[in-house]
Amino acid sequence: MVFNYKKNRAWAENLSIVMQIGLTMAGCILFCFFIGFYLDKWLGTRGLFITIFIILGVIGGAVTVYRQILQTLDDPPQDKEDSSDGSR
């Protein structure tokens, strides 16, 4: 069974947008978690920087996801056929 991209184009594009948003959010949180973890380990604190940086990761991820959603909504839909051949 072969995936027919032309038939399922809208579904595949929506799935890729949802996956991109989820991975962006998770990546921001994990990146900030590891920064906080290593700062706590280096400075000898117990969870202070992990907490601070996880909160910053959630906020930063939310801002990035919000911008991605706005960019997706502002992009005009692509036509199936390109009308650049000069005929009207």
Structure description:
With 88 residues, the chain is mostly helical. It has a domain at 22-74. 70% of the residues lie in helices and 0% in strands. It has helices spanning 9-43, 48-74. Helix 1 (9-43) packs antiparallel against helix 2 (48-74). The radius of gyration is 20 Å and the shape is elongated. The chain starts with 8 loop residues before the first helix and ends in a 14-residue tail after the last helix. The relative contact order is 0.12. The mean pLDDT is 86.
Task: List the secondary-structure elements in sequence, H or E.
Answer: HH
Amount of beta strand: under 5%
Low-confidence regions: none
The largest sheet, given as strand count, sense and whether it forms a barrel, is: none
Structural class: mainly alpha
Count of runs of 4 or more consecutive helical residues: 2
State mean pLDDT (0 to 100 scale).
86
The value of Rg in angstroms is 20 Å
Q: How many β strands by DSSP? A: 0
Tell me roughly what share of residues is in helical segments: over 70%
Distance between the termini: 39 Å
Q: What is the oligomeric state here?
A: single chain
User: Which outline best applies?
Assistant: elongated
List keywords for this structure.
88 residues, mainly alpha, single chain
What is the topological layout?
Layout: H1 9-43, H2 48-74
In short:
By secondary structure, the chain is mostly helical.
